[in-house]
Amino acid sequence: PLVFKYLNGRKKLDYYKKKFLCYYQLIQTKIEQDEINENYEDFQKKLGIIQSLICLDEFFIKSPENYNKFENLFRKSQSDFFKIPEQIYKVILDASSKQEFNLINSKLSSIEIFSKSKFISAIKISLENILQSIIKDTKNYANSFNENIRHEQNKENLRKYIENHEKIQIILKQTNILNFIDKNIRISLENLFGEIEKILMKKILYILESIENFFNQNNYLFIEKTMEYLTDLLKELNDYYKFESIQDKINQMKTRVSQLPNEILQKYDFIDLNKYINDSPKDVCEQLKLASSNGYSKYTQIYRQVIEKLRKKFSSEIDYGKNDTSSNRSMKLTTIRDASYYLPDELQNIFQNDIKEINEMIRKVHVPDCD
Description:
By secondary structure, the protein is mainly α. Helices cover about 75% and strands about 0% of the residues. The termini are far apart. The mean pLDDT is about 90.
């Protein structure tokens, strides 16, 4: 005691007590900031420092209000540290349900030190399941595009596909997520857009094939509507895919559809009446009227031109047949009569009396006069 007194022990002890208390307050503040700022590595290091300073509590054995300060801080901080993986798990689970991948990426930035925690394993499994589901759904949406324009689900699936495409674009920018998940899933994500492009190109080729079939069927309404559907589809996907390898085929079909009125007028000259059975003018005109009545007004003018061309041609054939005196007259009249069945209704009405007259002429040829 004399030495302690001689060396000003009390004064020095009080000095170091104050210094230790100041350091306690400083490290307490810093470790709390580390937790708030998610600096978990620094948090862990300070936890070790606090543990090593528990021995300083001996200086405060006679000060109940300060006794076990470092030990209590260590125990509280250690408890908080052990709770962090579960807290991260809950945050990421909630963010995963909302597919907030930026937040997930942020939370994954400093969890390596918890790699052995069961919660980190659970995060990995949950996140991988969500990503695999997104990959699967995105492929399904791309595969579900139907070349049948009446398929109402097309529009909805396109909307869902674009949503997923943009999600994947975001995911592919999240380095922490990509490094955290299984390598095979990461590769699937990185290769997904290439796979989708191939799927979509097949779908587009199917649509082009459908339009070609509609050309063969003279289905002008479906040619126009399917081309519109394809144009809209390409427009929606333009920010994501260019389809360069099939662009020529797309452009060729666009050009052909735009020139369809001229193609119709050139294709159907209606000169050979014997061809009416295979290329029925009535069917062609009905398809033109159908397209016109569904909002494609350009087909109204084509319809009128075709009707006028048919009227002139058939009128000429009737006049020729009636005045024909050759041995083939009966065959010619029969051809005119048979061809008349394939005329549009309005022309059948116009030529109704002429056809009756031709039928009578044919009957007289085949039934000789009894006199």
